[in-house]
Amino acid sequence: MAGTAGSVKNMGDMVVRRVQSFEEWRVAVRGLIASGVPPAAVQWQSPANDGDLFSGAMEEANDDAPSDAPALRLPRQLVELLECAACYSAVDRWAFLYQVLWRWQRGEHDVISPADTDGARLHGMVKAVHREEHDMHAYVRFRERKEADNDDAPRFVAWFEPTHEVLPQVARHFARRMGGVSWMIATPTATMLWDGATLHAGPALLKGAAEIDDDGEALWLTYYRSIFNPARVNAGLLRSHIPSRFWKNLPEGAIVPAMITGATNGERRTGQTATVGQRSGATTIPIRPERALPQRDSLTTLQQCRRCALWQHATQAVPGSGPQPASIMLLGEQPGDQEDLAGKPFIGPAGAVLQQAMAEAKLPRNSVYLTNAVKHFKWEPRGKRRLHKTPAQREIIACHAWLEDELEHVQPEVIVALGSTALKSLLQDSTATLQAMLGTPFQHQGRWVIAVYHPSYVLRAPDEASRRQAYAVMVEGLRQAIKLLEDGQHNRVS
Ligand code: URA
Question: For residue 21, how many other CB atoms are within 10 A of its CB?
Answer without folding.
Answer: 14
